[in-house]
Specification:
The protein is an alpha+beta fold and 235 residues long. It has one helix and 13 strands. Strands 2, 3, 4, 5, 6, 7, 10, 11 and 12 form a nine-stranded antiparallel sheet that branches. Strands 1-13 form a two-stranded antiparallel sheet. A two-stranded antiparallel ribbon has the order 8-9. The longest helix is centred in the N-terminal third of the chain and has 35 residues, at 2-36.
């Protein structure tokens, strides 16, 4: 009987020791467990409030800097403007030049430069700017100001070339046109073998050749064709 009580007492002591051991370990196990349970960590949820973006207005709200508030009227002149049209090709115009020797890349112009007078094929530095408008050969000499290529009618049927000059009045004899890039002239009363045949004669003066190109060329002249060139500058 004494043996049974001793056994019970020993068992009780062992149980108490085991409970004490478990209680001593509980904080460590609890800490480990709490780190492993999903969802126990503090989570910061980003705000889902939408941001409002304001699109800049495309409508003007004032006068841009440097924009004049009144219009300036450019007066129409009757003479060339100094420095105009310049060495850069103006919109809507062309250089016109020869492409054959001995006048390769000699340029159409008037003499005096940008003034009424004879037509020349001469140095590129004084080249004029031209176009053909409604059958008229026009030279730009100032804003809104033109000279017109004028052809002198032949004095008689033996004439083999016609002079070309520039004037402030429109041409009344014949019609200018571009055929491809070649400048041509025609008139109903003359049957020309080649509408794009030209002559360069004394002092680089430009004439319309009424005969065949490179055939029976008048003394003191050379045969040429002349063509528009739309590069920004002469070359």
């Amino acid at each position: 009987m004494h043996f049974q009580k001793s056994s019970i007492h020993v068992a009780a002591l062992l149980t108490a020791a085991a409970v004490q051991s478990v209680n001593a370990q509980q904080p460590a196990w609890g800490q480990y467990y709490s780190q492993c349970i999903p969802g126990t960590a503090t989570i910061t949820t980003p705000s889902t409030t939408p941001h409002t973006t304001t699109k800049p207005s495309t409508s003007p709200t004032g006068t841009p800097t440097g924009t004049p508030t009144t219009l300036t009227t450019v007066p129409v002149t009757t003479t060339a403007a100094a420095g105009y049209p310049g060495t850069t090709l103006q919109s809507g115009y062309y250089w016109i030049r020869a492409v054959e020797s001995p006048n390769f890349h000699s340029y159409l112009q008037s003499k005096p430069t940008k003034a009424a007078g004879p037509a020349l094929l001469a140095d590129r530095t004084t080249a004029g700017q031209f176009n053909v408008v409604s059958g008229q050969l026009v030279q730009l000499i100032a804003p809104s100001t033109l000279l017109y290529g004028n052809v002198s009618p032949p004095a008689n049927s033996s004439v083999v070339k016609l002079a070309l000059s520039f004037s402030t009045t429109q041409n009344t004899y014949g019609t200018f046109a571009f055929s491809g890039d070649a400048l041509t002239w025609s008139v109903s009363s003359i049957n020309r073998p080649n509408l794009s045949a030209w002559l360069v004669c004394d002092a680089q003066s430009l004439w319309i050749n009424l005969g065949s190109y490179a055939y029976n060329t008048p003394p003191g002249c050379v045969d040429e064709t002349i063509h528009y060139f739309n590069g920004a500058t002469v070359d």
